[in-house]
Write a structure and sequence with these properties.
heterotrimer; A alpha+beta; B mainly alpha; C mainly alpha; A: D-Maltodextrin-Binding Protein, domain 2; three-stranded antiparallel beta sheet; B: mainly alpha; MetI-like fold; 16 helices
């Protein structure tokens, strides 16, 4: 009986309450009034008025506003790399000037080369720095678009007009993301044209063709193999975390044929940048894979190649007779030095792919630059300090080379290092390079020759000496999930194809294509193309 | 004394068979475990280029000290890194061991009403984590410890695993009856812990202490995350970062016109292992007695 | 029956009788609990939005967004997502957690009352469930009100108002709490039990022992755990960590776009083998070493077996590669020397499960063995002496004495490892397999997959956290279920 009563009571309560709440459910009848409210004029008035007043104030003032230096502050300058031993010495010398001029101290801090991307992002997230080194390879565009840095236009007008004039609007415009300026680029033009490093001594010794085409590269490899069976021919690694076209790095050599690769299997044509052609569904793709398979079968690289780790010493140690990926004029210089030190009888030569395709361009302004971190408490001071670092010759040289007499000296106009504790650009301040102040090193003449040569080729391009895709950055938030699936499929199927480890190329290509489509490649491509179109329109690349 | 007695008795067949099995298997396993180490040592004494071309062997190929020369290029720094690591290991292990014993003792006590809740709360941390960023934020921004030495050793003083391991050791070596009777005799928790529990958990202390110490010795991550100057670097980070900068700088050379001394990366990798492991192997026998020779529990029983 | 008789006699004496008072009390609390539960169900709105059009303007909400005029704690996050007011997301998810916990406890209390599952300590367990439920409900309702104040202040509006329901909840639950506490007090006396304060007074030293442990875990684990929330946001620097847009389960999509079944299967199977085989081997070798008579041999072999632990994964990669490489690898050199044909390890997935397991066993044997060795060393000699007197041979001694005494340690280690069953050994797989897509079907685990994805796109904190959350929830479910089962069998072996 007791149970019965309790059951009744419970039922009663449920009824009472659910009755009461049923009304509640009816009360909010999806009261979304988008159009109406969006166009409601009453509230609209306040908001724009608020935002408009602020920008007006600053342009009002005619001269640059006075920099407030009443308080001694320390600014953290966050750099990518290892700390040189004499950082403190240089910091002290620098801060003497800084305190006198800006009542400011600079504290250089470093990522070290271990886990640098993680630490770099952490520092930005937690606001652990004021000034910061930026670069395309540190995802400058994504970080800037996401708001990691301060907008610099006004700051530069007010506190660094000289620097602005020196950099020039064209260069600065290259650092814009979504129309806003977030970085001050370095002021030393350079060419980072990829190409192929090969062994000139072997070319001569066995009278082989210069690898200036895929056929000649094959002949070059085969010639070495025929003459010296014990010589390892090529050391390659796989790339599994991107959406580009090259899963095994021998495929980078294809740039000798095409002007360049874009993401999601597109080929880029420098004369007609706005139209991207499909590579993965072209016959060229199948043919290229077949070519690589003949190379793999000929034993140019080991069947364990896909598990190879990145080995930067492979060329130097004779594990490979050519490097086709990630090379550039600077690396060529490094290779030359390495050979001179360890194998004086070897000779390396460099061929930029652009020399063959005719498309070559200087590196993009965002290759090395400086930004001010959002959340920096003294952005005015940071900007003024940055201008001083870049526009004052002595200061710039102090940071880049250390103290003259202690760390370096100048002989015949060339930089000579005196101390291991502070080398050339020891703090990796590549972002502070300024053409007029940059002390030349011994090898710089060779480099300059290469640059000059490339510049003449670059002149002849349709868009002379313009890095066309340089500041394009994809916003994949709308198709992020599909993109991750594409990354995954590409990682699994593309490297074996391009490394020539599949038995039947045609079938494997088919499988790769099907899997890519299943992963949602179409959706990614759609979004990507739309953005690329918009980008080309914006920059008048037709 | 029991051992001597059995030796005098003639061994039966099973004991003889067992002798063969155990000596045979152990020798074999020990060899499998040690061979790679010989390869590592000989590799570290080889010439980098030769090793890259021909692979490793049991004997050094083209003998060369260059890997060690690279590592000890600036002896002051590496000695400092050794010193710091020893400091972190010593203080971290000592503090950690103390905290772990206190915790494990508490949650092993049947009288403690909330022991299961506390155990769960401790264990829970091993399953759920917020990831790197909030952890980093906690130590750098909220506690403002970036660059200090405290932050290098503090985060590793205990782990759920070690607490639960210690609890198991305590539960296994101290029967409830003993603590119960001690309590009835009027002993407080402090007395029970120091007089009854501590003397018998030698192997447990040694195990947990060893794991803690090894954790400290092998760590590089906290230096990487939190150090702001070389002064506070751990040894492993010093070595690891040396390797990383060699790779990174040659990879980055497209951005920098840097002239960098060539580092023999392959052999340095191996030499690093030798440099980092050596001291531990020298120290190990001091702890080892707890694992290979029993301790006398007589102290309690008597 | 006595209660009904009493009711007939007089209302006053009814309240004086403890049993009757308890019945009435339980009835009151049940009613209140039911009311509270109903009020905190998803379809009861706790928040009302007035001036929707103003809100639309003030937050510049996109046109396609769906905004209601009222919200409960459950769908509040949809408001956060639709309105783009990321700053409200974290507190809203905290509120959601507390509300769910409160509703669950209320339901548990009602369940216990309805089916008379009072537990084994009189009514005490029922009461403590009730108290927990009421406290949580109080926190939830006050939290909701605090949330409103916070939201209005942060957004600079005054149009988010509490509905009458949310004001009713604290009144009801505080009343129920007071009644429960009163009943709990009398029940405690009856059951000779004591509350927290008494326990604290009695065992204050033990509580003191726990202080450093608590401080550590709060700093190092519990406060940073708030980062789990990032699994539901799309981080950007402009808004910052806790104010980035709330995106619901979008970050989890990438897990389901992959072959999640394959990844889960690989991760779990590898871990099962690692845990099972690993522990068995460790026990086996620990017993072997402990049985060795010669001290010298004992120490040397144990040290030698320990050594692979010091081989870092980076070096393991070098060793493995040199062993199994196609052209000059040690194995293939011997195979060809013996007249066989080369084995293409790096293009044949089927070898790798064995290789990975073997190398992991090799590397972890010495380290894991230490635990068991130390346990064996803690076993009193008396046991063996007695067995010898009884004529047990060495195998019998091991099977009947050593193994059973190692079992508790074994089970605890096993249980402990179970919680991490979805967390793969990233370094081991990454270094052994590297970037070799050919082997992925057999070797790709969740951690290597997540690594590949997160390195392919910057600012992927949300994805990494989401994957971590998947692993954690998976592990938690498994460990809670297993622990529950083990606790029923033998509470000695339970982890918590």
């Amino acid at each position: 009986m007791k149970r019965f009563v309790s059951l009744m009571l419970v039922l009663l309560m449920v009824l009472v309450f659910s009755g009461c709440t049923a009304q509640q459910v009816q009360a909010p009848p999806a009261d979304d009034t988008p159009e109406e409210s969006a166009t409601q004029p009453e509230t609209q008035e306040e908001a724009p008025a608020d935002t408009e007043t602020e920008p007006e104030e600053t342009p009002d003032e005619t001269g640059a506003p006075e920099l407030d230096t009443s308080e001694l502050v320390t600014l953290v300058f966050y750099l990518c790399g290892d700390e040189p031993n004499d950082t403190a010495v240089v910091e002290d010398a620098l801060n003497e000037r800084m305190v006198e001029k800006f009542n400011t101290k600079l504290d250089f801090q470093f990522t070290t080369w271990t886990d640098y991307t993680t630490k770099y992002n952490n520092t930005l997230t937690t606001g652990g720095a004021d000034l910061v080194y930026i670069a395309g390879w540190l995802n400058y565009h994504t970080l800037a678009a996401s708001g990691a840095f301060l907008e610099l236009d006004d700051l530069m007008n007010n506190y660094a007009p000289e620097l602005r004039a020196r950099a020039g609007e064209d260069t600065l415009n290259m650092c814009r993301v979504g129309g806003e300026l977030y970085a001050v680029p370095n002021l030393w033009p350079e060419y980072v044209s990829t190409g192929i490093s090969y062994r000139q001594d072997l070319v001569e010794k066995y009278s082989l063709p210069v690898p200036d085409s895929l056929e000649n590269l094959g002949a070059y490899f085969q010639g070495i193999k025929d003459n010296d069976p014990d010589q390892p021919i090529y050391y390659g690694t796989a790339d599994t975390n991107s959406v580009d076209c090259t899963g095994f790095d021998i495929a980078e050599a294809l740039v000798i044929k095409y002007d360049g690769f874009m993401d999601y299997g597109y080929i880029f044509d420098a004369d007609n940048p706005s139209v991207l052609t499909d590579y993965f569904w072209s016959d060229d793709f199948v043919e290229d894979c077949k070519l690589f398979k003949t190379w793999a079968d000929a034993g140019y690289w080991t069947r364990s190649s896909l598990s190879n780790e990145n080995n930067t010493d492979a060329y130097k140690n004779g594990l490979t007779t050519a490097i086709v990926s990630g090379q550039n004029p600077n690396k060529h210089i490094t290779n030359m030095n390495d050979f001179a030190n360890e194998h004086p009888d070897w000779e390396t030569k460099y061929l930029a792919y652009g020399e063959v395709t005719g498309y070559i361009c200087p590196s993009h302004a965002t290759q090395n630059g400086t930004s001010i971190v959002r959340g920096c408490k003294y952005p005015e001071r940071a900007m003024a300090v940055l201008q001083y670092l870049m526009m004052d010759e002595e200061t710039n040289r102090l940071v880049q080379c250390g103290i003259e007499g202690t760390h370096y000296e100048i002989q015949d106009g060339l930089y000579v290092n005196l101390s291991e504790d502070y080398g050339y650009e020891a703090m990796d301040t590549w972002n502070l390079r300024v053409n007029e102040f940059k002390l030349p090193q011994g090898t710089d003449t060779i480099l300059q020759e290469m640059f000059d040569y490339y510049a003449t080729i670059g002149e002849k391009c349709k868009y002379p000496n313009v890095n066309i895709g340089g500041d394009f950055s994809e916003d994949y938030s709308a198709y992020e999930a599909e993109r991750t699936a594409v990354v995954n499929v590409r990682a699994q199927y593309l490297p074996p194809l391009q490394a020539g480890f599949v038995d039947d190329v045609d079938a494997a290509v088919e499988e790769f294509r099907t899997k890519m489509l299943e992963a949602g490649l179409e959706k990614c491509r759609e979004g990507y193309l739309a953005q690329w179109d918009a980008y080309c329109q914006e920059h008048d690349y037709v | 004394m029991t051992g001597t007695k059995t030796n005098r008795i003639r061994k039966d067949a099973s004991a003889v068979a067992f002798d063969w099995i155990k000596y045979g298997l152990l020798t074999l396993t020990a060899l499998i475990c040690v061979l790679p180490f010989l390869v590592i040592i000989s590799g570290s004494l080889s010439d980098n280029a030769t090793v890259m071309r021909e692979g490793y062997g049991l004997l050094p190929k083209n003998f060369s000290w260059s890997a060690y020369e690279t590592i000890f290029e600036s002896p002051k720094e590496i000695i400092n890194a050794y010193k710091m690591t020893i400091y972190y290991t010593a203080i971290g292990t000592a503090v950690g061991l103390a905290v772990i014993v206190l915790t494990a003792y508490t949650i092993s006590r049947k009288e403690f009403k909330y022991r299961n809740v506390v155990s769960f709360l401790i264990y829970f941390t091993s399953i759920f984590g917020g990831g790197l960023v909030p952890w980093y934020l906690m130590y750098t921004n909220i506690l403002g410890l970036r660059g200090s030495t405290f932050i290098i050793w503090f985060p590793a003083i205990m782990s759920p695993f070690l607490v639960i391991l210690m609890r198991t050791f305590i539960a296994g070596s101290v029967p409830d009856a003993i603590t119960e009777s001690a309590r009835i005799d009027g002993a407080g928790e402090g007395t029970i812990l120091t007089r009854i529990v501590l003397p018998v958990i030698g192997p447990g202390l040694a195990t947990v202490g060893l794991f803690l110490a090894l954790g400290y010795w092998n760590d590089w991550y906290r230096s990487s995350m939190f150090s702001t100057s070389k002064e506070t670097w751990e040894l492993q980070f010093y070595l690891y970062n040396m390797l990383n900068s060699a790779t990174a700088v040659s990879e980055m050379s497209q951005y920098a016109n840097v002239s960098m001394d060539a580092v023999p990366t392959q052999t340095v990798k191996l030499a690093m292992a030798v440099v980092a492991t050596g001291p531990v192997l020298l120290f190990y026998p001091f702890v080892q007695r707890y694992f290979v020779t029993g301790i006398t529990i007589g102290a309690v029983k008597g | 029956m006595t209660a009904t008789n009493a009711k007939l006699r007089s209302g006053v004496s009814l309240l004086e009788r403890p049993a009757a008072a308890r019945t009435i009390g339980i009835w009151i609390v049940t009613g209140l609990s039911l009311a509270t539960l109903l009020l905190s169900l998803p379809f009861v709105n706790w928040f009302t939005l007035t001036n929707l059009s103003g809100l639309w303007k003030a937050l510049s909400i996109p046109n396609e967004a769906v905004i209601y005029s009222g919200y409960s704690a459950y769908n509040l996050l949809s408001f956060v997502q639709q309105s783009g007011a990321g700053i409200l997301g974290f507190p809203a998810s905290m509120l959601l957690l507390v509300t769910i916990a409160a509703a669950l406890f209320q339901a548990a209390f009602l369940f216990r009352v309805a089916f008379k599952r009072y537990g084994n300590k009189g009514y005490l367990q029922l009461y403590s469930t009730g108290t927990c439920a009421m406290i949580l409900s109080i926190i939830a309702s006050f939290g909701a009100i605090a949330y409103l104040i916070f939201a209005n202040a942060r957004l600079g509006i005054t149009w988010m108002l509490p509905s009458p329901m949310v004001c009713l909840v604290p009144v009801l639950s505080i009343a129920a709490y007071v009644v429960l506490k009163a009943m709990q007090k009398t029940e405690r006396v009856r059951q000779h039990e004591h509350g927290f304060l008494v326990e604290f007074k009695r065992n204050w030293l033990l509580f003191l022992f726990l202080v450093p442990c608590f401080a550590y875990f709060i700093i190092n684990n519990y406060l940073p755990m708030s980062g789990v929330y990032f699994a539901f946001t799309q981080f950007n620097f402009r808004d910052g960590l806790f104010a980035s847009p709330f995106v619901g389960f979008k970050n989890f999509e990438f897990l389901f776009m992959s072959d999640l079944w394959k990844l889960t299967k690989n991760t779990v199977l590898y871990n099962i083998v690692f845990i099972g085989l690993g522990n068995v081997l460790q026990i086996f070798f620990a017993i072997l070493v402990s049985q060795v008579g010669s001290k010298w041999f004992k120490k040397t072999s144990q040290t030698m077996i320990f050594m692979p632990y010091f081989v870092s994964f980076v070096i393991l990669r070098v060793l493995v590669y040199n062993l199994f490489e196609y052209d000059y690898g040690v194995i293939n050199t011997y195979v060809t020397a013996l007249g066989g044909s080369r084995i293409d390890f790096y293009n044949t997935p089927k070898y790798w499960p064995f290789l990975i397991v073997a190398f992991n066993m090799w590397k972890g044997l010495g380290y894991g063995m230490v635990v068991y060795l130390a346990t064996i060393m803690g076993i009193s000699d008396d046991y063996y002496d007695a067995a010898k007197v009884d004529g047990a041979n060495i195998f019998q001694q091991i099977i009947y004495i050593t193994v059973p005494l190692l079992t508790p340690t074994f089970i605890i280690l096993l249980l402990y490892a179970l919680g991490g069953i979805m967390k793969g050994q990233f370094e081991l797989f990454y270094q052994m397999v590297g970037t070799n897509g050919v082997l992925y079907d057999a070797t790709d685990i969740l951690d290597t997959y997540v690594y590949r994805i997160t390195t392919s796109q910057p600012l992927s904190m949300g994805l990494a956290t989401a994957a971590g959350l998947y692993q954690s929830v998976f592990g938690l479910v498994i460990i809670v279920v297993t622990n529950f089962c083990i606790k029923r069998g033998n509470p000695e072996y339970a982890l918590f």
